[in-house]
Each structure stands twice: as structure tokens, then as C-alpha cells.
């Protein structure tokens, strides 16, 4: 997979040299390139922002440096296309342009899985009050443009959001995580939060590991873990149970949910009372 990131603070993305993602880059699984937006300006001061039309606080990122930067990376992840399409075709799939913004659709594990299938992702890191809206309209001609939010809070720029998204997406690219089994049993992969985990010693500061985990009874352990997942999800993220497909529930799941105060209908999990 090719990934391009455009930012006025390329140093922010240095963390992508580290750990699993850094290793994946070294191994050639991720072709990740960070670009300085100011390299696409033409004035002496390398200006990237200006005052907003209509007034208001703060500055807005100028359109032209963004257009230059995005045009320069648009075709980078392709084989150059065919002779008569101006090099914009890569066989039908356009690169995805992800614009981190609190005004975007919320980033989820499902979205990470979808984006991990793409050949080319481009991330545009906005700063200040945002990027001139016309850039997103113009970019729609070449990219599949997706404003994406990490959640309902504001950051100073898109860089930290890109670190999170590249890590979440990159680890799903085949070969990046050494043991793909570890992707199966983790929070959100099945719509529930993960069960609690423990390691040695079995007794620590007068706290014991739940006995069932020492029993060697794998069936019972799996059942206990599933109950813990349901219990945690109900306590911490009841909104996830709202969306959960009730047809995936076993008899034991239903009994656990009933004990937790839920009513399980044919296709929904509803809080009782
Ligand atoms: C400037 O970007 C943000 O403030 C941002 C980006 C992605 N998700 C958010 N929740 C905020």
C-alpha cells in the first residue's frame, strides 16, 4: 500500500518510523511518504494561510498550495495509467483522500478494514481553522474524498489523527502484524470490547487471577471471556450493544445479557425497563 501524508509539520509524522509501522516500511509493505506543504508554495515567505472571507477568528489554509501538493501525489501510487487517460487511471480505483476533521464521519474499526484494502491513501493535515473548502470540491475529480473524525473533540491539526489512522489501518495490511490471529481477538473486531487479561504471578498484592483462567478448561474459559466481553460492553459502551447483531448471540450469551438487565429479542438487544 502507498500512503502519502501532506502537512506543514512533517516532523510530527516521524513516529511512523518506529515500531510495527516502521518495520512494515522497512519491509516494503507500506510505501509511506511525508510531504511538506510549504514545498508547494511559490512565494518567498512560503505562505500557506490567509484570513477568512466573511470574517471570524483564525486563519484558513490557502487553496493553491494544497492543489499543487495533492496533484503531485495523486498519481504516485499508480502504474501511471494508460496512454490516453492522462495517467490518472489505475484500473478503476481512485486514491482515497482522507481529510482529518472534527466535522468528518467517525473513524471506526470497520472503516480501518475498508481502507486497508486500498492501494493508495493520501492524508491532508489541516491546521488553523481548516482548508479552503474549494480544495475538497476540486480534489473530488481525482480522489475519493473522505473527511474523517477520530471523535467528538478538537485537535490543533490533523497530524495526530493521521498517526492514529495510519497505525489502525497499517496493522491490518497483510504481513504487517506477524501473527494475524492477534487481529481476530481484539476490541471492536466482533463489535464487542475485549475481555480482561492477566499474566504471572497468579497472586499479586493480594489480588488473584480469576480461578477459571488457571483451570485448563478451555470451553469454560472461552465462555467466561465472552461473558466478560458482554459485561464490559454493557457497562462501558452500551451504544455498541444497541448496534450489535443479536442473531450472533448464543444461548449462554443471552443468559448473560438477561442477567445484566437486557432483553434480547430476535434481532435486537434492548435495555430492560
Ligand atoms: C484539525 O483536526 C482535528 O481537530 C481533528 C481531526 C480528526 N478528528 C478529530 N476529532 C479532530
From TrEMBL:
GO terms for molecular function: tRNA (guanine(37)-N1)-methyltransferase activity. It is an enzyme of class 2 (transferase). InterPro entries: Alpha/beta_knot_MTases, tRNA_m1G_MeTrfase_C_sf, tRNA_m1G_MeTrfase_TrmD, tRNA_m1G_MTases_N, tRNA_MeTrfase_TRMD/TRM10. Pfam families: tRNA_m1G_MT (PF01746). Keywords: Cytoplasm, Methyltransferase, S-adenosyl-L-methionine, Transferase, tRNA processing. Residues 1-242 form the tRNA methyltransferase TRMD/TRM10-type domain. GO terms for biological process: tRNA N1-guanine methylation. It comes from the Bacteria. GO terms for cellular component: cytosol. S-adenosyl-L-methionine binds at residues 126, 150-155. It catalyses: guanosine(37) in tRNA + S-adenosyl-L-methionine = N(1)-methylguanosine(37) in tRNA + S-adenosyl-L-homocysteine + H(+). Its EC number is 2.1.1.228. It is found in: Cytoplasm. HAMAP family: TrmD (MF_00605). Belongs to the RNA methyltransferase TrmD family. Specifically methylates guanosine-37 in various tRNAs. Homodimer. This is tRNA (guanine-N(1)-)-methyltransferase.
